[in-house]
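pasting for the record
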Amino acid sequence: MPNYPEEMVAPMREELTQVGFRQLMTAPQVDEALQRPGTTLLLVNSVCGCAAAGARPGVVAALRSLGLRFDQLVTVFAGMEKEATAQARDYFEGAMPTSPQAAILKDGQLLHLMQRSDFLGHSPEEIALTLSEAANRTLA
């Protein structure tokens, strides 16, 4: 059972889908997406303030303003699609579950993970730069 009404989270989902993120709603969809060859950016979306003020706008800025590119952009929503979110976090190699999270993966292997502390208190511009630097460093 989801924690929040869908009409409440719909704008938060749209913030990502309008820039090309695909919603993963089930655990099998997560496995299918994350086991694909290539580079993936996965965002664990959330209703929290640091997702609204930092994570979503920071990721969007990295894609739009800094030209960051991945083979696929996918997202799960913490507190909504609980099995999909748990399955996505299984790829994070034992990291504590936080919301939000942003993971860079290549061929299903975690290369970089941003946790809540990487978003909290940081501007979208700082987050975009951190994500871009991590992608450039790990995908080079």
